[in-house]
Write a structure and sequence with these properties.
- By secondary structure, the protein is an alpha+beta fold.
- It has one domain (2-74).
- Helix content is 13%, strand content 31%.
- It has one helix at 17-27; strands at residues 2-4, 32-37, 40-45, 61-67, 71-74.
- A hairpin with a 3-residue loop joins strand 4 and strand 5.
- The longest helix has 11 residues, at 17-27.
- The protein is globular, with a radius of gyration of 12 Å.
- The chain starts with a strand and ends in a 9-residue tail after the last strand.
Length: 83
């Protein structure tokens, strides 16, 4: 379990790295439970994003549950593509 507290750190592309990890885990359907609210991110399960992964979540808040067998239940309905 990784609990990430709000940080001012940003990656070189200006994206919160914890939010990028959640986007990567949801996009790759890696089982876990994810919550984000502004700069607060909580991830149980999932994986760290690859260095070259360009995806990002475009919502301020959300919850997601990814189960084994590629089932995903989420409040996020947007794209992971950068804008």
């Amino acid at each position: 379990m990784k609990l990430k507290v709000p940080e001012e750190k940003r990656s070189s592309d200006g994206v919160n790295p914890q939010l990028k990890d959640i986007a990567y885990s949801m996009d790759a359907l890696i089982p876990g439970f994810y919550i984000w609210l502004g700069s607060f991110c909580w991830r149980f399960g999932g994986s760290d994003a690859e260095e070259s992964y360009p995806g990002v979540i475009h919502s301020f808040a959300g919850i997601s549950l990814v189960l084994p067998g590629y089932q995903i239940f989420t409040t996020y309905k947007g794209s992971y593509d950068p804008r």
